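Recall that a protein's primary structure is simply its ordered list of amino acids. Everything else, from secondary elements to tertiary packing, is in principle encoded there. The following example makes that idea concrete.
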Amino acid sequence: MTMPPEQLQHEIARRRTFAIISHPDAGKTTITEKLLLYGGAIQEAGSVTARAGTSHTKSDWMSMEQQRGISISSSALTFEYEGRHVNLLDTPGHQDFSEDTYRTLTAADSALMVLDAARGVQAQTEKLFAVCRNRGIPILTFVNKMDRPAQDPFELLEQVEQTLAIRAVPMTWPIGDGPSFAGVYDLARREVVLYERVARGRTRPPVSVASVEDARVAELVGAELHAKLQEDVALIEGALDPFDPEAFLRGEVTPVYFGSAITNFGVEHFLRDFVRMAPAPGPLETTAGEVTPEAPFTGFIFKLQANMSKNHRDRTAFLRVASGRFERGMEVVHTRTGRKLRLSRAHTLFAQDRESVDEAFPGDIVGLVNPGVFRIGDVVSLVPKVELRAFPRFTPETFASVTMKDVTKRKAFHKGLEQLAEEGVVQVFYPTDGARDPMLGAVGPLQFEVFQHRLREEYGVEIDLHVTSYTLVRWLAGDAGSVARFARHVEDDQGRPVMLFRTRYDLDYTAERHKEIEFLPLPQDLTVVRK
């Protein structure tokens, strides 16, 4: 059924799709839960490290995430707020899961950068910011944990500008920090929003005051904080440029908010501005040119996940709708293979929960049951021959050999190995010397723990992992005969020849002695050797 253009345009205009990025422990998962709470998507925000009798976070749905109090897999969550349809992509902060995070950022139209008020810009935040900048997506900033001792807010702004090379414009300003944190001043609305702490970290509704000069402010926060606030606001208004919405959309400016997610303060204030400021879905760059959101349906796969639901135990492909209207049951072209597919088994995503979806629009994330057809980066479209440029892929830096404890479970082992490698949990390499057991590659060792845990929990397979001394991997390219004679290699899961090295010296020495072979850092660079 064809949708009128004006109705499609209305649905596009009200979509907001964003990812949350941060260094571990900056409070990303906590702020995710509070955004869902204010959006009415959940009734009670969970605890990242839930005690007995308290709920776990909705976004961290894997048992290992709940046990360890960390995010190890990206998840998609959706809610409505003030007439906008918000798609929130929660990403892992830990550097060992960077590849999952980087791929998820390809599906976002904007990003929220969460900073720890005491630590400012940290290493992983800097890396993720660079990805967002390379994609040209606007970034908003939330300085979290103001209820704890914090850096001077002017120094934080300077650190953001110097480290990330982006102009930071405060939208709210903190009144004190740590035990003296009393609220924020809204610079645009000229309002002071205050809160009081009560039992168990909850807050009473904020109190609004007309302006920073209002005598009531001194009564509520004390003369010392009031004087400091007046001084700060005078400096901001006299020395800093006002917020420029167009510069923000170009990625030149980041609006900065202050608050405390754990105490619910400042999050709703941020959310109210976010849905007005953040961009609606824009064009998608493809090998065939730019695809606008109003064009016929096109979507791309940015993530695969097995066993999200214990009731289904299937594989889910995360589809970002890039253009047009998605309808359940529609027939599309799988552009990598040219096959026609009917997208009949489609559902909405809310962490691991699901329900059938009948339609979706640009910016929306749809879960497709994957019978082994989809790969990350695949495109499905009403228009054939539309493909994306290469998706991010990381070179492993740590390697482990793996053996089964019970050889009778070899079938389940290989199923888990295939599906978890397909997700990108690990990369798999096979010896060419006849050995049966594979070798795993990962960006960081925590990925091995996740792989071992999920094999045991989801596939019933116990394994032993032994970390090796290898630290580098290179794919072999060149004349097919030369590569075939070069026997000291393993193969990746696509059958392509690969060689592992213990040190950079070993790599350089081998490359010097075998100039007939290229040693490439990524498999997509292979142009000659094909299996």
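The radius of gyration is 25 Å. The longest strand covers residues 298-306.
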